[in-house]
UniProtKB/TrEMBL annotation:
Keywords: Heme, Iron, Metal-binding, Monooxygenase, Oxidoreductase. InterPro entries: Cyt_P450, Cyt_P450_B, Cyt_P450_CS, Cyt_P450_sf. SUPFAM superfamilies: Cytochrome P450. Gene3D superfamilies: Cytochrome P450. This is Cytochrome P450. It holds the Pfam family p450. GO terms for biological process: cholesterol catabolic process. GO terms for molecular function: cholest-4-en-3-one 26-monooxygenase activity; heme binding; iron ion binding; steroid hydroxylase activity. It comes from the Bacteria. Belongs to the cytochrome P450 family.
């Protein structure tokens, strides 16, 4: 049981799905709210059942994002706490609680509402076609994760922000370094200082962007953030940069992981590939099933403001809980045959976008990107198979497949 709990604080466990899901199934069955003491980490409660994760998400007054919004080593926790006290730390929507969260979230909310999504859909469709065409140019074999999936949603979200295409490769590298800090292939370095350098590079880039958009406002999301006002005052450079960071990183890395993982699932379940190809009307259900299957955001943390209980287990004020989304999304009490990939799954009460006031701002955009990409790919796809071993990112926060070698034929 203790080893199962420690898996949640082991980045390599997320690169080994069999080990991860075996550990999570044991916790759901035997200790759904389990105290974890992992070497190098401050202790926490692991919350693994769907109902308990939802209960914590619902009560955002009792369970707060600050001061520990996601799992990090004790060393990083100390650094982040010091930076927060100094006013120099990252302060994204993930780090905020109400009332600040509600006010700051509203700055970008209109850009992700249904009207905005309808206006953006032609551009998303055009980009989906561009990347399926790119697959055709690669002559029947590619690393789908690295060659296709990471680029398509990156272009969508950075186009929405209004960044020049010449900067896209830099944004991709910085994102991979930020989210891949535990992955030997993706990380910038081993020490906290080296890993924080990627974040500081993000800040420097976006501080220059803020200054440019304030000097010459434009009709894009970057300008809306730069020129937003809260209580009559503009966002600080740090808060503006933090907003850009969460949009630019979470806005594409999670979707690229889902697109890669979704194609991998279709390859491994040819009956579901045939079913979806024969009935593209299932695409909305298939997209949500891919999101549930991959669950690119692995966890968020909350800290109890007062003594309470979760799933009947006492939790004291000041103790942290880890919300395990991959576990909630395989909960046998909620999903019929949860380890079956089903492109027509309905209902699908997955929690991959979170729940409550912190529900993912870009959920509608992610769904649209996934649907448009596979709606473009599947009618042209004649055959597809693995051409090597898929590789997952070592992470405890955000990730999915970093390599998916495939062989295929397109019409």
């Amino acid at each position: 049981m203790h080893e199962a709990g420690r898996a949640l604080a082991d980045p390599t466990a997320y690169a080994d799905e069999h080990r991860l899901h075996e550990s999570l199934a044991l916790l759901r069955r035997e200790a759904p709210v389990h105290w974890v003491e992992a070497p190098g980490y401050n202790p926490f409660w692991a919350v693994t059942r769907h109902a308990d994760v939802m209960a914590v998400e619902r009560d955002h007054g009792l369970f707060r994002n600050e001061p520990r919004p996601l799992l990090a080593t004790a060393q990083f926790d100390a650094i982040n706490r010091q930076r927060a006290e100094e006013g120099t730390g990252l302060r994204t929507l993930v780090h905020m609680d109400d009332p600040d969260h509600r006010v700051v979230r509203a700055i970008g909310a209109d850009w992700f509402r249904p009207k905005a999504m309808r206006a953006l859909r032609p551009r998303v469709r055009e980009l989906a076609r561009r990347y399926v065409d790119r697959m055709a140019e690669l002559d029947g074999e590619c690393d789908f994760a690295a060659d296709i999936a990471v680029h398509f949603p990156l272009y969508v979200i950075l186009s929405l922000l209004g960044l020049p295409e010449s900067d896209f490769p830099r944004m991709l590298k910085l994102t991979q370094e930020l989210f891949g800090g535990a992955d030997e292939e993706l990380r910038r370095g081993v020490s906290p200082e080296e890993q924080l350098a990627a974040l500081l590079d993000f800040f420097a880039y976006f501080q220059r962007l803020t200054a440019a958009r304030r000097a010459e406002p434009t009709e894009d999301l970057a300008s809306a953030i730069a020129n937003a006002r809260v209580d009559g005052e503009p966002l600080s450079d740090l808060d503006a940069a933090s907003y850009y960071v969460i949009i630019a990183t979470a806005g594409h890395d999670t979707t690229s992981s889902t697109i890669s993982g979704g194609l991998h699932a279709l390859i491994e379940h040819p009956d579901q590939l045939a079913r979806l190809r024969n009935d593209l009307g299932l695409m909305p259900f298939a997209a949500d099933e891919m999101i549930r299957w991959v669950t690119p955001v692995k966890e968020f943390m909350r800290t109890a403001e007062a003594d309470t209980e979760v799933g009947g287990v006492p939790v004291r004020a000041g103790e942290s809980v880890l919300l395990s989304y991959p576990s909630a999304n395989r909960d046998e009490g909620v999903f019929d045959d949860p380890f079956r990939f089903d492109v027509g799954r309905d209902p699908n009460r997955h929690l991959a976008f979170g729940f409550g006031v912190h529900y993912c701002l870009g959920a509608a955009l992610a769904r649209m990107e996934i649907q448009e990409f596979f709606a473009e790919l599947l009618p042209r796809l004649r055959s597809v198979e693995l051409a090597g071993e898929p590789e997952l990112t070592a992470t405890t926060f955000v990730g999915g497949l970093k390599h998916l070698p495939i062989r295929y034929t397109l019409a």
